[in-house]
Structure formats: C-alpha cells, structure tokens
C-alpha cells in the first residue's frame, strides 16, 4: 500500500546524495521534492522532473525567522515546509507528509527487531491510526537510532516533539517559523494549545546525523 496523503521532501544542496528520494523510490512511494530555483537543473539531472517542485520566492521573502539577521544567513527549511502545507491544501488533502532529505531508509519495529520495509504500508498505517482521533495535530516516525533493539519501546509515544518525518493535519492554525529548531517550535505551539502529537516507535526512519552530510543546513548553520 501507499499513503493516501501527499509526501513531500524538502531538499537543498543534496542532489547527489538524495537519500530520502532514493529510499522512497526503492519503496515505490510517490513523492514530490521541493528545491530552490537555482538548484533545479542539478536535481532534474538525477530525478524525474515531474516529481520536482520549485519553491516560490514569496515563501522565502515572507518567512518569519523571528530574528534580526534578515537575509545574511539561510532561512532554513521552514519556508519550503510552509509551501508544501499550502500545496497540499490546494490539492484538497486533509493531511500531508513532509520529510527531511537525509532519511536513508524506513523500518518496522516489532518484538525488538527492526526490519527495513519495502513499501509504503507503514505510512498508510500511520494515517489510518491518526484518523481515528480528532485531537491529533501532528504525528511522525521516530529515529531508527533512538529505538534500540535491546530496550523496551511502546508502539507510540504521545505529546512529544516531532522531527524530520512528519504527518501534519492541514487545518490546524499554525505555520512553520524560525531559522533554527523550527520543528521544536511547531510542536510546542501545538501542545500548548491543547492538541496532541504522536510519535510512532513501531515505524522508524533512518536519519543521518546532522553535520555528517554536506548540503542542507550544514554549511549555512553548523560548520562553524
């Protein structure tokens, strides 16, 4: 099975590695990848152009970084994440998936064994689960490295921060903001207003650690 809701990858400077794109193609999961205009040719050389969306400049211009640095540094992935939120609403969907571009695989954790999956069934199962409830604003997959096969893990955890592989309800009254830690900020606002978040441990994503890969925010934010 494949997800019912659209899957988006937000990417910058990673046309060569494109880990999440490779993982989803291996699983035959449809997706769109959002890139900035100046990198479009690099991505079309290695990804089907029909899967590529160019980030409109207005999302960068209007993005709220809530700092005074202006355009002196990268604004991070939040602007592109706001674009896919609107894009999924315009397409008539009630939820959307948004993923970082450095997820190398997806897994099913069951009885302390983490098996790599070969289809999008875990995404469909996650969607079916959250749709049983009216008060979940966002859900997501925990990191492979955070669920050790030698330890006990519940199938999911409620009301924690959601990072990197998110399933977001489209009608909640928020948008991404902030240059740094924008995922923490969104989770905190959701929880403060009484919504629930849900992080799956039964379904996992393999996240390459920040600064271990070039591209993304490594050069702009972390190298120094």
What's the β-strand tally?
Answer: 10
CATH third-level topology = Spore Coat Polysaccharide Biosynthesis Protein SpsA, Chain A
Morphology call? globular
Radius of gyration: 17 Å
What is the CATH superfamily classification? Spore Coat Polysaccharide Biosynthesis Protein SpsA, Chain A
Q: Portion of residues in helices?
A: 25-40%
**What's the architecture, going by CATH?**
Alpha-Beta Complex
**CATH top level?**
Alpha Beta
**How widely separated are the two ends?**
43 Å
Structural class of the helices, strands and pairings? alpha/beta
- Assess the beta-strand content as a share of residues: 25-35%
Write down the domain tally: 1
SSE arrangement, N to C? EHEHEHHEEEHEEEHEH
Q: List unreliable stretches of 5+ residues.
A: none
> Mind summarizing the main beta sheet?
10 strands, mixed
Count of helix runs: 7
Q: How confident is the prediction overall: mean pLDDT?
A: 93
